Amino acid sequence: MKILIVSDAWEPQVNGVVRTLKMTRAELQRMGHEVEILSPQGFRSMPCPTYPEIALALTTRAEVGRRIRAIDPDCLHIATEGPLGWLARSFAIREGWPFTTAYHSRFPEYVHARIGLPTRWSYALLRRFHNAARATVAPTPAIVDDLKARGFTGARLWSRGVNLSLFSPEGERMERGSAPLFLYVGRIAVEKQVHKFLELDLPGEKWVAGEGPELPRLKARFPQVRWIGVLDGQALASVYRTADVMVFPSVTDTFGLVMAESMACGTPVAAYPVPGPIDVVGKDSPGGVLDTDLRAACLAAMLKPRDAVRRHAEQFNWEAATRQFEQALAPRRAQALVPPVVGGVQVPGGSA
């Protein structure tokens, strides 16, 4: 099949949504599908307020529709609720095209943390967006259940994977001292609660990898912390391996891909017992420790055997996750569902 993914989040951004879409595209292509991405690249754009790394496309429904028609996909997936997502949704509804959507971020909680907008208002808007779709895929069972309870009619599971070759216990490490090392990886923004980690009375060092609007304030407040910026690929895997514990203080993430990546490198996770960590790390888990007392979770996580942490992460694989994504798609044409015949044998996952 030819699959079009419309996303307001794409390169050159470095975040969990972009990594998820890139890995999913690669797996879909390996399965025999053709995958196109419609992103802000190629449109005039403006920086997103409070999140300038994200470019917001400045365009029209007619232009988005023209580009979608030119691609002529068998399946349309709208990955984000930004300007391109709303315009693609409007086009699809007007043309009678089926489509699917994804719920990547707990946007209502993010907005509430930043400007105090009641979450019920944001959820009402998101229900309108997603309930027009044939399915809305979300990354964990807890998030799927939460969406259903809030009136999202098509919520279903699309889990996540980890590049287990890249993120592994074997490989380079960064120079460090002998004292314990606690690490945070991710966006430095108010909804991520990075300050909750930095305020903890912990032995040893604290490192932070990432950028965001809270960075200047937190750097000034915590000058003793090592700030190492945005990392990707081998450099990111190296910093995970170097740490003794990866601390995840957010209570608003839908999944938290950094937790799975850290565990794949053998580094246990300390987090609060909330959706995201509950599904990725788990309670009473070899992968880390969840506790309402984050300091206690950090100290207890140091005792986790790193080989057991790695084994726990191996449950997250992109092939299985991408099969879930593929099965949720809503083809426009019946023939898109028919596997191709190659050498007299029908090949699953192909297009007609």
Automatic annotation (TrEMBL):
One GO term in the molecular function aspect is: glycosyltransferase activity
Provide this UniProt record's keywords sorted from A to Z: Transferase
Q: What residue stretches are annotated with the Glycosyltransferase subfamily 4-like N-terminal domain?
A: 14-165
What InterPro entries is this protein classified in? Glyco_trans_4-like_N, Glycosyltransferase_grp1
Cite a single Pfam family from the UniProt record: Glyco_trans_1_4
The source's domain of life comes to Bacteria
Mind telling me what this protein is named?
Glycosyltransferase involved in cell wall biosynthesis
